[in-house]
Amino acid sequence: MESSVVSLELAQALLELPKITAQELYTRLEGKIGTVSLPQFRIELSKWLADGTIPGYEARLGRVGGIYRKGSPNITLNAGEKPTVQLDPAPISAFIGEYLKTNTRITVSQLIELVDIAPLNEGQFRSQMSEWLNDGKTFPLFESRKGKTGGIYPKGAEVDKWIPSVDESNEGTEAEHSNGFAVQITNNLRVHQSDERNWVIQKLTGQTWVNKGYHPNIAGCLKSVVKHMVNGEFSGANNLVQLKDLANVFKEVESLIFTQLEKNLQVQV
Fold first, then answer.
1. Fewer beta carbons within 10 Å, N or C terminal of the chain?
2. Rounded to whole angstroms, how far apart are CA atoms 157 and 20?
3. What are phi and psi of 144, to 5 degrees?
4. Within the chain, how many helices (H) and strands (E) appear?
5. Can you name the residues that pair with 198 across neighbouring β-strands?
């Protein structure tokens, strides 16, 4: 799928319309983008809009959400007017399934960032998702879990182990942990060895490093980071938009890790 093809169709659509949803754009592109699925299209489009690959447009949430030309006003609804189109659960289900191929879980907050929820607002979407997840038929392959590692999981999957987030002010202490250290990948993305058995992907949110997933070894952790970056899920955490850039970053990370391991071994000796 070429970004130029998507950009041209988007430009043509927004000459006629004030805004368009990702699903509507996907329908217009039928036969022009190969066999890309709607969930894959949503992920790629979200990344391209965020990193400027397709410039001049922005995605907006809410009852009048969709893709707009940057700076253009939202369409308006008359007072008391309710959306006439209801949200279709099928593309939401397909997106969750695609996302969970490379992730253990997804939260409703993440869904709100990654998919079109128009014509619903955030509160309505959360209520709708709760209804779908508990009716026993809309999402038969998934289930909702509560708690600190809550979210939407494949049915029957093991719940993620909870690892406390680390405040930025404790970063130096944490890096000197007897069996672990942290390696910064970008300004607000890093991997951290929380203990002898776990490596954690962390993203800086405000002043807090928030855990995004844990792995039993560094190889699996870095592989997961690459997948997240390529899929655009960490697009807000970095300015890396090309695979060659990712390759360079991870060569540097690998070097930092081996250097730190050597230091740890020398200290132990």
1. C
2. 36
3. -100, 135
4. 9, 9
5. 195
Per residue in 85-96, pLDDT tens? Answer: 467 888 899 999
Q: Which domains does the chain have, with CATH numbers?
A: 3-69 (1.10.10), 89-154 (1.10.10), 166-268 (no CATH)
Looking at the predicted structure, is the pLDDT value of residue 236 above 50?
Answer: no
Average pLDDT over residues 133-145: 90
In order of 21, 40, 67, 72, the CA distances from 97 in angstroms are 20, 11, 24, 34
* Strand locations in the chain (E): 57-60, 66-69, 142-145, 151-154, 166-167, 182-186, 189-195, 198-205, 208-215
Residue with token string 């992920």? 43
When comparing pLDDT for 59 and 78, which is higher?
A: 59
Alpha helices, DSSP H only, in 69-162?
89-99, 108-114, 122-134
Query: How far apart, in whole angstroms, are the C-alpha atoms of residue 12 and residue 89?
Result: 28
Query: How many residues in the chain?
Result: 269
Phi then psi for 10, rounded to 5 degrees?
A: -65, -45
The pLDDT assigned to 141 comes to 94
Q: What spatial distance separates the first Cα and last Cα of the chain, rounded to whole Å?
A: 53
